């Protein structure tokens, strides 16, 4: 089948979801109020709580949630065929991710910018909150430690990406000053910023940067990991308007343009999808499509991490409550568009079926490299760009997505540390909270694996943990809707589906970890499973009590 069909159908369904379904949610379910005073105004501090233009905030939210996962997940999952991956990404974006991200943002804004972890205490009880925070902390640990490895590997394998990736930080700092200190409008900083970013990509393709074999006794990968965590720690401490907001905004523009370039290449090259729609001859060792498809493709269909970003940083910057539809739901659509591009690159970016089967000869064989190589082939064929420039563009896209997720993730982990300390009865400051978050991530990175690769040790649990968190976030939103007397089914149905698939996947992985002797993963799997089931039970009780209170009030 021609890839154009997949592209047009996928984008059309997502567009219909945004223009019609999200409008229905905004008006009938969440009932947004433009006059509601958001935490960005009522709790404004110039550091975390800052009223923000919705386009700038969308850029922050979109690039924060769109890490490496929406590329890696589909790149792996097409081993079962492009059909299941396509259906889950497109319909998951419209009916699962959009509702989830939008809902988490709305719920937090309506509760003084509290994170989902803290909201769980208000709506499902103290025990549920404590267990919820455990799941959140483990998920953020996985994201931060693993993404550092992914980024470092790309910086080593694609040295032409080094200049644009690190140069983007300087561009972001200048844009932040232009918008907030010198009160410039968005137009010229946006145009100049994007032009400079693409000039840096061209410059990077001409002058690759390769680190020495050893720096202070560390290899290149380890050095990049230390530098990445140093940057993330500094970004976590700075006011959001100085670096985080402008970096995410300008990256969002650049990355959206990058998607446009990739989509234009598909339309011009008109490539054929060489992979099967449903692969009936999967390689030996490939797990069952159910439930693994629904946890392998997390970001891009639905992701619990999105709820953490929406309620952790985005809700504290929302200028008007009505902006939540654009920022939250359309942010999920942007993620879906990236995953759709990954599916096309990893199925139509190969010359023949044999070439595709060579890469997908084992489960996990397809990864970010398949996306970069497949996308490079499409861009070269469609737009005639030099191969080196195409690979630099896509590698930079992947790294910038992952890096913006990592710096937001570390900030969120600092919030969790501070919230946990507050619940324990003492106060942890911003600097100490950041140091603790960094120490835990670095301990995992360098303590559980050689050369800082420890983050990948617990990565197999990311998908299931992430989807469990999404289910638990939907559970909290459902409780809120029940208490408010609104239709809970639009969040309740996705919640039940995700809970079943995630618990099923955790149980399947228990057997795998036991048979392989992976005791750390086995222990973490058990902890996460117990916590998730316990929180789900507490949420079910809260839903029943909320319905009883509502019915009693109606009878009175």
| Total beta-strand segments | 0
Mean pLDDT: 87
Radius of gyration: 22 Å
Count of helical stretches: 21
Please give a handful of descriptors for the protein shown.
556 residues
Describe this structure in words.
The chain has 556 residues and is an all-alpha fold. Helices cover 74% and strands 0% of the residues. The protein contains 21 helices and no strands. α8 runs antiparallel to α9. The radius of gyration is 22 Å and the shape is globular.
Draw up the topology in text.
Blueprint: H1 3-29, H2 39-42, H3 54-65, H4 69-77, H5 82-109, H6 116-124, H7 126-157, H8 162-181, H9 187-206, H10 220-237, H11 244-269, H12 289-296, H13 304-312, H14 323-348, H15 353-359, H16 368-383, H17 387-424, H18 430-447, H19 462-483, H20 489-516, H21 519-555
Helix pairs in contact: 1-5, 1-14, 3-11, 3-14, 3-17, 4-14, 5-13, 5-14, 5-19, 6-7, 6-19, 7-10, 7-17, 7-18, 7-19, 7-21, 8-9, 8-11, 9-11, 9-17, 10-17, 10-18, 11-14, 11-16, 11-17, 12-20, 13-19, 14-16, 16-17, 17-18, 19-20, 19-21, 20-21
Q: What's this model, at a glance?
A:
With 556 residues, the chain is an all-alpha fold.
